[in-house]
Design brief:
- It is a single chain.
- The chain has about 260 residues and is mainly α.
- Helix content is about 80%, strand content about 0%.
- The longest helix is centred in the C-terminal third of the chain and has 32 residues.
Length: about 260
């Protein structure tokens, strides 16, 4: 955790987007650590850091959504064969940049979120120094894999974005736990970690497409035609369909002991 604290202090030298992303990753790692270490602490001891980390995550949500929009539209533009559609998608992406430029600056929210994360790290270090017993790796990982499998089955029975997002959170939490505890270089474990990483990555792409689609429908830029917005929403729906097929395939190859 001390290493993570130094990393977040170094992020101030990067761009705002890089700092937001890096801070969000640290928040997710800490939340995964809290879940893993739950048996070692009382519920009251974990309630404050859980609440504080949720607050820090919410502070960065708006900037994250704008970054997702730009990335998704630029990705669609690269994969579109028709030059007219490609140029239109890039215009739509640039319209998001214009909206970002006129909205509130993210620096204040970023500094606030980073301060919360650093305080949480210090408090957790103090808790662990007080003699808490670390839980069994194998038992917590087994529970994490069961949670991942359950969430995946639930999501794949339909196409509810909320269930896919829950699946992604379980996958990311498990990934961080594996990285924290399984460092012996065992080939089978390394392969499992790679597959869980692939799963959470594709589920992340799916969630980003959902965010972009929802934002386009709710807040279409005034300078962009309705036809282009509808076409972009359609392309995002096709992307979601392809990603659902990919995550089903990846999930089928994830096994644990």
């Amino acid at each position: 955790m001390a290493i993570e604290g130094r990393r977040i202090e170094q992020m101030s030298h990067g761009t705002a987007a890089e700092s937001v992303h890096g801070t969000r990753v640290l928040i997710k790692r800490l939340r995964a650590l809290l879940w893993f270490a739950r048996p070692a602490f009382s519920a009251s001891a974990l309630e404050r850091p859980k609440t504080d980390l949720r607050k820090a995550s919410h502070l960065l949500a708006a900037e994250r959504e704008l970054a997702v929009m730009r990335f998704q539209l630029e990705a669609l533009a690269r994969k579109t064969s028709k030059s007219a559609d490609r140029n239109a998608l890039l215009r739509l992406a640039h319209a998001q940049d214009s909206h970002s430029a006129t909205s509130a600056k993210p620096e204040h929210s970023l500094r606030h979120a980073a301060a919360i994360v650093l305080t949480t790290i210090k408090e957790l270090k103090q808790e662990t120094n007080d003699g808490s017993h670390w839980p069994s790796d194998s038992k917590r990982l087994a529970k994490g894999f069961r949670a991942l499998e359950k969430a995946g089955k639930k999501a794949l029975r339909g196409a509810d974005p909320v269930q896919f997002h829950d699946w992604r959170k379980r996958a990311k939490r498990l990934l961080y736990q594996l990285q924290l505890t399984q460092d012996d270089g065992d080939k089978r474990i390394v392969q499992t970690i790679d597959r869980v990483d692939q799963l959470q990555e594709k589920l992340g792409d799916y969630h980003d497409a959902v965010i972009a689609q929802d934002r386009l429908q709710k807040y279409p830029p005034d300078e962009i035609s309705t036809r282009l917005v509808r076409h972009s929403v359609h392309l995002l729906e096709k992307r979601k369909h392809r990603l659902r097929k990919k995550v089903r395939k990846i999930a089928g190859h994830i096994k644990w002991k």
